[in-house]
Amino acid sequence: MRQVKTLGLLGTGVIGGGWAARALHYGIDVIAADVKPEMQAWIRGAVDNAESALSRLTFAPLPPKGKLTFTTDLLAMAKQADFIQENIPEQLELKQRVLADVSRVAPQDVVIASSTSGLMPTDLQKNMVAPERFLVAHPFNPVYLLPLVELVGGTKTSAAAIEAARRFFTYIGMHALHVRKEVPGHLTDRLQEAIWREILHLVNDGVATTGELDESIIYGPGLRWAGMGTNLIYHLAGGEPGMRHMLRQFGPCLKWPWTKLEAPELTEGLIDKMVDGTQAQAGGRSIRELERLRDDYLVDIQQVLRKYNLGAGATLRGVEKRLYDDAAARAGANNDVPLRLVETQVRPEWVDYNGHMTDSRYLQVFGDATDALFRRVGVDDAYRKSGRAMYTVESHVTHLNEAKALEGLFATTQLLSVDDKRVHLFHHLRRTRDNAVVATCEQIYLHVDTQASKASAMDTQVRSKLEAIRKSHADLATPEQTGRHVGAPRN
Ligand SMILES: NC(=O)c1ccc[n+]([C@@H]2O[C@H](COP(=O)([O-])OP(=O)(O)OC[C@H]3O[C@@H](n4cnc5c(N)ncnc54)[C@H](O)[C@@H]3O)[C@@H](O)[C@H]2O)c1
């Protein structure tokens, strides 16, 4: 299966828009195809809307954003894409027909996946050419923030297709869960439907409102679920003997049972109760407002989980490691003097009210350059785990020129001096189009024993690699901003 540089989307509604935002964010080009021409404006709006939350998810060095194009010619998309994700309405015959059409023109090493919430892959791949490259890849809304994607193969799906899909989705920051047996609803929707069915019963029987039922989740189980699933949580609830005790204690109620298996009839009365209830919960807030609130807390929750290396936070750490490794590999491949360690682009969300790159992003880009240098000489995750790290002691940024949205930039790094404990660096950030220096940054780093929180001598190999770089920079002129204080008049 081929390496994915261009993602083709079939159907650009809620889910297609979410896939587009996620893929573009991680530098993948997207060709979005939909039968309705008006979806072009819609998908561009959806991508823009996703950006404010997505841009806060990580500070790891992202590649330039992918390019979005739109077409109503599904087959033209299928000829150009390296991976095709189908997101058209949930109707078996429609999906079967469109997937078969697309499979006739898409090269056979192109994986074709369906976002279907509940249809079976064996049914969907029935009329396809090269059905072995087809699988279900079921995401969750908002696709650009929730990392879960369920991968389900049909009877004809090859292991290579599942593996290629897993690789691609991991690359764009997702957690690929391989569902080993196809069942209607896969795993997650089967579980979600069970809760949804009970909600409908409880509302229908007048036991509780939609708002009370949501309270029963968000103040309790919902908080636990983000870090540990029902099974591990129940294991803890059983005390020292764990799950065995839990089953002994609560097993009998499974026989009563508390829950009802059949869904209630969706009468007009029940529909009204559900709609009125959720409208009261929305309290006059629009869907867009609520989406923004949801997106903001989803970002923050993932950052908290990242700290504990749990669930979605572990996935975030995984993609950040990949982004830093890629940046270091790109940087490691050149021996320019001074070192050219970071290539980037001013992302639209980086600009301030003046339309220029905002202050904090300068420090981020200079930090990325320093990080790439340190990784190059061996100060990486393993080094930090051994209880040693480089701490920033001083940074002095001087702003010299403007950088507008989408401007290409690169950073060069000069090593001014190094001793056993200190590294003295100087970065220039330049515009790619005219080489103009946009900003400079002088930094001093201290090597620290992180257990003792004290300066300590660095590893001899790290020291000698830094020394070799310093020697290669010895003939470079000392930048005029070196050692400058803040340029305010002194009394
Ligand atoms: N909405 C969710 O929460 C969610 C979550 C996970 C998976 N899914 C699955 O994703 C799929 C899409 O759902 P959605 O919510 O984005 O639907 P949607 O109605 O928002 O979007 C469907 C899009 O498909 C387009 N379309 C219709 N026929 C087409 C055709 N023949 N060729 C190309 N485009 C066509 C429509 O114009 C529309 O833009 C479904 O299979 C659904 O089960 C949905």
Poorly predicted segments: none
Proper CATH architecture of the largest domain: 3-Layer(aba) Sandwich
**What is bound: which ligands?**
nicotinamide-adenine-dinucleotide
- CATH homologous superfamily name of the largest domain? NAD(P)-binding Rossmann-like Domain
Q: What is the 3D shape?
A: globular
Question: How are strands sequenced across the largest beta sheet?
Answer: 3-2-1-4-5-6-7-8
**Residues in helix, %:** 40-55%
Can you walk me through this structure?
- The chain is an alpha/beta fold.
- It has three domains: 181 residues, NAD(P)-binding Rossmann-like Domain (Rossmann fold, 3-Layer(aba) Sandwich); 82 residues, no CATH class; 138 residues, Hotdog Thioesterase (Thiol Ester Dehydrase, Chain A, Roll), CATH 3.10.129.
- 43% of the residues lie in helices and 19% in strands.
- It is built from 17 helices and 14 strands.
- An eight-stranded mixed sheet has the order 3-2-1-4-5-6-7-8, sandwiched between helices. Strands 9, 10, 11, 12, 13 and 14 form a six-stranded antiparallel sheet that branches.
- Strand 4, helix 4 and strand 5 form a beta-alpha-beta unit.
- Helix 10 crosses helix 11 and helix 13 crosses helix 14.
- The longest helix has 22 residues.
- The chain starts with 5 loop residues before the first strand and ends in a 19-residue tail after the last helix.
- The model has no long low-confidence stretch (mean pLDDT 93).
- The structure holds nicotinamide-adenine-dinucleotide.
- Nicotinamide-adenine-dinucleotide (NAD) binds next to helix 1.
